[in-house]
Design goal:
There is one protein chain. The chain has 362 residues and is an all-alpha fold. It has helices at 14-26, 38-42, 46-61, 68-81, 85-98, 104-109, 118-128, 136-139, 148-169, 182-197, 226-246, 249-260, 272-278, 283-297, 304-313, 317-337, and strands at residues 214-215, 359-360. It has a two-stranded antiparallel sheet. α4 (68-81) packs antiparallel against α5, α4 (68-81) packs across α9 (148-169) and α5 packs across α10. The protein is globular, with a radius of gyration of 19 Å.
Length: 362
Protein backbone atom coordinates (compact mmCIF):
# COMPACT_ATOMS: atom_id res chain seq x y z
CA UNK A 1 0.00 0.00 0.00
CA UNK A 2 1.36 3.44 -0.89
CA UNK A 3 0.50 7.11 -0.30
CA UNK A 4 -1.77 6.38 2.70
CA UNK A 5 -1.68 4.81 6.15
CA UNK A 6 -4.23 2.05 5.82
CA UNK A 7 -6.12 0.77 8.85
CA UNK A 8 -4.95 -2.75 9.63
CA UNK A 9 -7.33 -5.47 10.85
CA UNK A 10 -6.02 -5.27 14.41
CA UNK A 11 -6.48 -1.49 14.61
CA UNK A 12 -9.89 -1.41 12.96
CA UNK A 13 -12.87 -0.29 15.02
CA UNK A 14 -16.18 1.46 14.41
CA UNK A 15 -17.49 1.25 10.85
CA UNK A 16 -14.14 0.05 9.48
CA UNK A 17 -14.05 -2.81 11.98
CA UNK A 18 -17.65 -3.72 11.18
CA UNK A 19 -16.97 -3.83 7.43
CA UNK A 20 -13.76 -5.81 7.87
CA UNK A 21 -15.73 -8.37 9.87
CA UNK A 22 -18.31 -8.72 7.10
CA UNK A 23 -15.58 -9.06 4.47
CA UNK A 24 -13.88 -11.85 6.42
CA UNK A 25 -17.20 -13.66 6.86
CA UNK A 26 -18.59 -13.32 3.34
CA UNK A 27 -15.51 -12.92 1.13
CA UNK A 28 -12.76 -14.38 3.35
CA UNK A 29 -9.91 -12.53 1.62
CA UNK A 30 -9.32 -9.17 3.32
CA UNK A 31 -5.75 -8.70 2.00
CA UNK A 32 -2.84 -10.55 0.44
CA UNK A 33 0.29 -11.53 2.45
CA UNK A 34 1.94 -8.21 1.55
CA UNK A 35 -1.00 -6.22 2.92
CA UNK A 36 -2.39 -5.23 -0.47
CA UNK A 37 -6.14 -4.89 -0.65
CA UNK A 38 -8.74 -2.64 -2.27
CA UNK A 39 -10.54 -2.76 1.07
CA UNK A 40 -7.58 -1.47 3.06
CA UNK A 41 -7.04 1.20 0.39
CA UNK A 42 -10.44 2.66 1.30
CA UNK A 43 -9.99 2.38 5.07
CA UNK A 44 -9.00 6.05 5.67
CA UNK A 45 -12.52 6.91 4.48
CA UNK A 46 -14.89 4.53 6.33
CA UNK A 47 -18.01 5.62 4.45
CA UNK A 48 -16.43 4.81 1.08
CA UNK A 49 -15.17 1.48 2.38
CA UNK A 50 -18.72 0.61 3.45
CA UNK A 51 -20.19 1.76 0.14
CA UNK A 52 -17.73 -0.18 -1.99
CA UNK A 53 -18.23 -3.31 0.09
CA UNK A 54 -22.02 -3.00 -0.16
CA UNK A 55 -21.85 -2.79 -3.97
CA UNK A 56 -19.54 -5.81 -4.18
CA UNK A 57 -21.65 -7.83 -1.75
CA UNK A 58 -25.06 -7.12 -3.29
CA UNK A 59 -23.91 -7.29 -6.91
CA UNK A 60 -21.36 -10.09 -7.02
CA UNK A 61 -21.48 -12.18 -3.85
CA UNK A 62 -25.23 -12.60 -3.42
CA UNK A 63 -26.70 -15.44 -5.47
CA UNK A 64 -28.92 -13.90 -8.12
CA UNK A 65 -29.79 -14.60 -11.73
CA UNK A 66 -26.14 -14.74 -12.86
CA UNK A 67 -23.73 -17.42 -11.66
CA UNK A 68 -20.97 -16.32 -9.28
CA UNK A 69 -18.33 -17.87 -11.53
CA UNK A 70 -19.60 -15.81 -14.46
CA UNK A 71 -19.52 -12.59 -12.45
CA UNK A 72 -15.98 -13.31 -11.27
CA UNK A 73 -15.03 -13.99 -14.90
CA UNK A 74 -16.45 -10.60 -15.89
CA UNK A 75 -14.45 -8.99 -13.09
CA UNK A 76 -11.23 -10.75 -14.10
CA UNK A 77 -11.72 -9.72 -17.73
CA UNK A 78 -12.47 -6.07 -16.96
CA UNK A 79 -9.35 -6.10 -14.79
CA UNK A 80 -7.30 -7.55 -17.65
CA UNK A 81 -8.35 -4.86 -20.14
CA UNK A 82 -7.63 -2.23 -17.49
CA UNK A 83 -4.19 -3.82 -17.00
CA UNK A 84 -4.74 -4.43 -13.29
CA UNK A 85 -2.86 -7.71 -12.71
CA UNK A 86 -3.71 -7.87 -9.00
CA UNK A 87 -7.46 -7.92 -9.67
CA UNK A 88 -7.22 -10.01 -12.86
CA UNK A 89 -5.28 -12.76 -11.14
CA UNK A 90 -7.27 -12.84 -7.91
CA UNK A 91 -10.67 -12.89 -9.60
CA UNK A 92 -9.60 -15.40 -12.25
CA UNK A 93 -8.74 -17.61 -9.27
CA UNK A 94 -12.15 -16.97 -7.71
CA UNK A 95 -13.95 -17.68 -10.99
CA UNK A 96 -12.13 -20.99 -11.16
CA UNK A 97 -13.01 -21.80 -7.55
CA UNK A 98 -16.68 -20.99 -8.19
CA UNK A 99 -16.84 -22.69 -11.59
CA UNK A 100 -14.17 -24.45 -13.64
CA UNK A 101 -10.56 -24.34 -12.44
CA UNK A 102 -9.19 -24.56 -15.99
CA UNK A 103 -10.81 -21.19 -16.83
CA UNK A 104 -8.20 -19.38 -14.75
CA UNK A 105 -5.51 -19.38 -17.44
CA UNK A 106 -7.74 -18.17 -20.30
CA UNK A 107 -9.17 -15.42 -18.09
CA UNK A 108 -5.71 -14.10 -17.27
CA UNK A 109 -4.40 -14.37 -20.84
CA UNK A 110 -7.57 -13.28 -22.63
CA UNK A 111 -7.78 -16.49 -24.66
CA UNK A 112 -11.58 -16.52 -24.64
CA UNK A 113 -11.81 -19.61 -26.85
CA UNK A 114 -10.19 -21.59 -24.04
CA UNK A 115 -13.30 -21.19 -21.88
CA UNK A 116 -15.48 -24.25 -22.39
CA UNK A 117 -18.77 -22.92 -21.03
CA UNK A 118 -20.54 -21.03 -23.83
CA UNK A 119 -22.45 -18.68 -21.55
CA UNK A 120 -19.32 -17.69 -19.65
CA UNK A 121 -17.45 -17.29 -22.92
CA UNK A 122 -20.10 -14.86 -24.21
CA UNK A 123 -20.02 -12.77 -21.04
CA UNK A 124 -16.22 -12.69 -21.05
CA UNK A 125 -16.17 -11.50 -24.67
CA UNK A 126 -18.66 -8.78 -23.72
CA UNK A 127 -16.60 -7.75 -20.69
CA UNK A 128 -13.51 -7.48 -22.88
CA UNK A 129 -15.37 -4.94 -25.05
CA UNK A 130 -16.68 -2.72 -22.25
CA UNK A 131 -14.18 0.04 -23.04
CA UNK A 132 -15.34 0.10 -26.67
CA UNK A 133 -18.65 2.02 -26.80
CA UNK A 134 -19.15 1.33 -30.51
CA UNK A 135 -18.53 -2.42 -30.28
CA UNK A 136 -21.32 -4.62 -31.59
CA UNK A 137 -21.02 -6.70 -28.40
CA UNK A 138 -21.74 -3.60 -26.34
CA UNK A 139 -24.61 -2.51 -28.58
CA UNK A 140 -26.17 -6.00 -28.52
CA UNK A 141 -25.18 -7.39 -25.12
CA UNK A 142 -25.49 -11.12 -24.36
CA UNK A 143 -27.77 -10.74 -21.34
CA UNK A 144 -31.40 -9.99 -20.52
CA UNK A 145 -32.75 -6.93 -18.73
CA UNK A 146 -33.24 -8.88 -15.52
CA UNK A 147 -29.53 -9.78 -15.57
CA UNK A 148 -28.36 -6.21 -16.23
CA UNK A 149 -28.04 -5.17 -12.56
CA UNK A 150 -25.60 -8.00 -11.87
CA UNK A 151 -23.72 -7.96 -15.17
CA UNK A 152 -23.37 -4.20 -15.63
CA UNK A 153 -22.99 -3.75 -11.88
CA UNK A 154 -20.06 -6.17 -11.84
CA UNK A 155 -18.41 -4.38 -14.76
CA UNK A 156 -18.89 -0.98 -13.10
CA UNK A 157 -17.54 -2.28 -9.80
CA UNK A 158 -14.33 -3.51 -11.39
CA UNK A 159 -13.82 -0.46 -13.58
CA UNK A 160 -13.92 1.41 -10.27
CA UNK A 161 -11.87 -0.97 -8.12
CA UNK A 162 -9.13 -1.42 -10.73
CA UNK A 163 -8.43 2.30 -10.64
CA UNK A 164 -8.16 2.48 -6.87
CA UNK A 165 -5.96 -0.64 -6.76
CA UNK A 166 -3.56 0.65 -9.42
CA UNK A 167 -3.38 4.02 -7.67
CA UNK A 168 -2.84 2.89 -4.09
CA UNK A 169 -1.08 -0.46 -4.60
CA UNK A 170 0.91 0.15 -7.75
CA UNK A 171 1.15 -2.10 -10.78
CA UNK A 172 1.75 -5.69 -9.77
CA UNK A 173 0.18 -9.12 -9.30
CA UNK A 174 -1.41 -10.62 -6.24
CA UNK A 175 1.30 -11.52 -3.72
CA UNK A 176 1.15 -15.04 -2.36
CA UNK A 177 4.41 -15.48 -0.52
CA UNK A 178 7.89 -16.39 -1.84
CA UNK A 179 8.07 -17.59 -5.46
CA UNK A 180 8.91 -21.24 -4.60
CA UNK A 181 5.78 -21.43 -2.43
CA UNK A 182 3.48 -19.51 -4.74
CA UNK A 183 1.64 -22.56 -6.07
CA UNK A 184 1.01 -23.90 -2.58
CA UNK A 185 -0.13 -20.52 -1.30
CA UNK A 186 -2.50 -19.93 -4.22
CA UNK A 187 -4.05 -23.35 -3.63
CA UNK A 188 -4.54 -22.43 0.03
CA UNK A 189 -6.13 -19.10 -0.94
CA UNK A 190 -8.45 -21.02 -3.26
CA UNK A 191 -9.56 -23.37 -0.49
CA UNK A 192 -10.24 -20.48 1.89
CA UNK A 193 -12.23 -18.68 -0.80
CA UNK A 194 -14.17 -21.84 -1.65
CA UNK A 195 -15.47 -22.10 1.91
CA UNK A 196 -16.71 -18.52 1.75
CA UNK A 197 -18.31 -19.01 -1.69
CA UNK A 198 -20.39 -21.90 -0.36
CA UNK A 199 -21.99 -19.73 2.32
CA UNK A 200 -25.52 -18.44 1.81
CA UNK A 201 -25.81 -14.66 1.55
CA UNK A 202 -28.96 -12.68 2.20
CA UNK A 203 -29.74 -9.87 -0.27
CA UNK A 204 -29.84 -6.45 1.36
CA UNK A 205 -27.79 -7.37 4.41
CA UNK A 206 -25.07 -4.81 3.65
CA UNK A 207 -27.49 -1.90 3.21
CA UNK A 208 -27.60 -1.03 6.90
CA UNK A 209 -24.00 0.21 6.70
CA UNK A 210 -24.96 3.51 5.05
CA UNK A 211 -28.01 5.80 5.00
CA UNK A 212 -30.51 5.48 2.19
CA UNK A 213 -29.89 7.30 -1.07
CA UNK A 214 -31.55 8.06 -4.36
CA UNK A 215 -30.54 6.12 -7.45
CA UNK A 216 -29.08 8.55 -10.02
CA UNK A 217 -30.76 8.30 -13.44
CA UNK A 218 -27.60 7.04 -15.16
CA UNK A 219 -27.62 4.00 -12.84
CA UNK A 220 -31.23 3.18 -13.70
CA UNK A 221 -30.19 -0.18 -15.16
CA UNK A 222 -29.82 -1.37 -11.53
CA UNK A 223 -33.51 -0.75 -10.71
CA UNK A 224 -34.77 -4.28 -11.54
CA UNK A 225 -32.75 -5.59 -8.56
CA UNK A 226 -33.79 -3.55 -5.49
CA UNK A 227 -30.86 -4.52 -3.25
CA UNK A 228 -28.31 -3.75 -5.97
CA UNK A 229 -30.05 -0.46 -6.77
CA UNK A 230 -30.02 0.49 -3.08
CA UNK A 231 -26.31 -0.34 -2.76
CA UNK A 232 -25.49 1.68 -5.88
CA UNK A 233 -27.55 4.61 -4.61
CA UNK A 234 -25.83 4.60 -1.23
CA UNK A 235 -22.37 4.36 -2.76
CA UNK A 236 -23.06 7.10 -5.32
CA UNK A 237 -24.26 9.42 -2.56
CA UNK A 238 -21.23 8.64 -0.39
CA UNK A 239 -18.92 9.28 -3.33
CA UNK A 240 -20.55 12.64 -4.02
CA UNK A 241 -20.09 13.69 -0.39
CA UNK A 242 -16.45 12.61 -0.51
CA UNK A 243 -15.90 14.47 -3.77
CA UNK A 244 -17.35 17.68 -2.38
CA UNK A 245 -15.10 17.41 0.67
CA UNK A 246 -11.93 16.75 -1.33
CA UNK A 247 -12.39 18.88 -4.45
CA UNK A 248 -14.02 22.32 -4.79
CA UNK A 249 -16.81 22.51 -7.35
CA UNK A 250 -14.77 24.25 -10.12
CA UNK A 251 -12.18 21.48 -9.87
CA UNK A 252 -14.80 18.75 -10.02
CA UNK A 253 -16.19 20.50 -13.10
CA UNK A 254 -12.79 20.20 -14.81
CA UNK A 255 -12.72 16.46 -14.19
CA UNK A 256 -16.35 16.08 -15.23
CA UNK A 257 -15.66 17.88 -18.52
CA UNK A 258 -12.70 15.62 -19.29
CA UNK A 259 -14.67 12.46 -18.53
CA UNK A 260 -17.64 13.60 -20.60
CA UNK A 261 -15.61 13.23 -23.80
CA UNK A 262 -13.65 10.13 -22.81
CA UNK A 263 -14.22 7.23 -25.22
CA UNK A 264 -12.62 4.43 -23.20
CA UNK A 265 -9.15 4.67 -24.72
CA UNK A 266 -5.94 5.24 -22.80
CA UNK A 267 -4.76 8.86 -22.92
CA UNK A 268 -1.60 9.60 -24.96
CA UNK A 269 1.75 8.91 -23.36
CA UNK A 270 2.65 12.58 -23.60
CA UNK A 271 1.18 14.95 -21.01
CA UNK A 272 -0.38 17.48 -23.39
CA UNK A 273 -3.87 16.13 -22.66
CA UNK A 274 -3.32 16.64 -18.95
CA UNK A 275 -1.77 20.08 -19.26
CA UNK A 276 -4.68 21.20 -21.41
CA UNK A 277 -7.15 20.08 -18.74
CA UNK A 278 -5.15 21.92 -16.05
CA UNK A 279 -4.72 25.16 -17.98
CA UNK A 280 -5.56 28.31 -16.02
CA UNK A 281 -5.79 26.64 -12.60
CA UNK A 282 -3.99 27.94 -9.53
CA UNK A 283 -1.17 25.71 -8.17
CA UNK A 284 -3.21 24.02 -5.42
CA UNK A 285 -6.10 23.39 -7.77
CA UNK A 286 -3.70 21.98 -10.40
CA UNK A 287 -2.35 19.54 -7.82
CA UNK A 288 -5.79 18.26 -6.89
CA UNK A 289 -7.17 18.05 -10.43
CA UNK A 290 -4.00 16.34 -11.68
CA UNK A 291 -4.42 13.52 -9.18
CA UNK A 292 -8.13 13.18 -9.91
CA UNK A 293 -7.66 13.02 -13.69
CA UNK A 294 -4.78 10.57 -13.54
CA UNK A 295 -6.75 8.36 -11.13
CA UNK A 296 -9.69 8.32 -13.54
CA UNK A 297 -7.90 7.85 -16.85
CA UNK A 298 -4.40 6.50 -16.20
CA UNK A 299 -3.95 5.46 -12.55
CA UNK A 300 -0.87 3.38 -13.34
CA UNK A 301 0.92 6.65 -14.27
CA UNK A 302 0.59 8.33 -10.88
CA UNK A 303 3.86 9.28 -9.20
CA UNK A 304 5.07 10.30 -5.77
CA UNK A 305 5.55 13.93 -6.75
CA UNK A 306 1.94 14.36 -7.86
CA UNK A 307 0.60 12.85 -4.64
CA UNK A 308 2.97 14.89 -2.48
CA UNK A 309 1.81 18.05 -4.24
CA UNK A 310 -1.83 17.04 -3.62
CA UNK A 311 -1.15 16.49 0.07
CA UNK A 312 0.52 19.87 0.40
CA UNK A 313 -2.63 21.43 -1.01
CA UNK A 314 -5.02 19.06 0.75
CA UNK A 315 -3.43 17.30 3.74
CA UNK A 316 -4.76 14.01 5.04
CA UNK A 317 -5.37 10.53 3.69
CA UNK A 318 -9.14 10.85 3.84
CA UNK A 319 -9.33 13.54 1.16
CA UNK A 320 -6.83 11.76 -1.08
CA UNK A 321 -8.96 8.62 -0.96
CA UNK A 322 -12.07 10.74 -1.51
CA UNK A 323 -10.65 12.49 -4.59
CA UNK A 324 -9.39 9.25 -6.13
CA UNK A 325 -12.64 7.41 -5.41
CA UNK A 326 -14.82 10.23 -6.77
CA UNK A 327 -12.93 10.42 -10.05
CA UNK A 328 -12.60 6.63 -10.37
CA UNK A 329 -16.34 6.17 -10.01
CA UNK A 330 -16.89 8.96 -12.54
CA UNK A 331 -14.87 6.98 -15.08
CA UNK A 332 -16.68 3.75 -14.18
CA UNK A 333 -20.07 5.43 -14.58
CA UNK A 334 -18.96 6.79 -17.94
CA UNK A 335 -18.28 3.21 -19.05
CA UNK A 336 -21.60 1.99 -17.63
CA UNK A 337 -23.42 4.71 -19.58
CA UNK A 338 -22.77 2.88 -22.83
CA UNK A 339 -23.32 -0.63 -21.43
CA UNK A 340 -27.02 -0.40 -20.51
CA UNK A 341 -29.50 -2.02 -22.92
CA UNK A 342 -31.46 0.62 -24.82
CA UNK A 343 -34.63 -0.18 -22.89
CA UNK A 344 -32.84 0.70 -19.63
CA UNK A 345 -30.75 3.62 -20.86
CA UNK A 346 -31.63 7.11 -19.71
CA UNK A 347 -29.76 9.09 -22.35
CA UNK A 348 -28.10 11.09 -19.58
CA UNK A 349 -24.31 11.39 -19.31
CA UNK A 350 -23.03 9.20 -16.52
CA UNK A 351 -20.51 11.60 -15.05
CA UNK A 352 -20.79 12.49 -11.40
CA UNK A 353 -24.54 12.87 -11.44
CA UNK A 354 -25.51 14.64 -8.24
CA UNK A 355 -27.76 12.72 -5.88
CA UNK A 356 -31.24 13.01 -7.28
CA UNK A 357 -33.43 10.30 -8.54
CA UNK A 358 -35.92 9.09 -10.96
CA UNK A 359 -35.77 5.71 -9.22
CA UNK A 360 -35.87 5.56 -5.45
CA UNK A 361 -33.58 3.10 -3.72
CA UNK A 362 -35.64 1.83 -0.86
Amino acid sequence: MRFINAVGPREADGLVGQVYGEIKRDFALLRDPDGNSPFLAHSPHPELLAGMWSVLYETILVDGTVRRADKEAIGATVSRINDCPFCAESHALLSGVAGQAHDRGPLISGAVDGIADQRRRELVAWAAATREPHSELVRSPPFEEKEAPEVIGTALAFHYVNRTVEFFQGHGPMQAGPAPLRGVMMALVGRIAARAIRRSREPGRSLRLLPEGELPPDLGWAAPAPAIAAAMARFAAAIERAGRDALPEPERARVTAALATWDGTDPPLHVDWLEQALRGLEPDARSRVRVALVAALAPYRIDDAAVESFKQAQPGDRDLVGAVAWSALGAARRVASWLAPSSLATGRPAISAPPGASVAAE
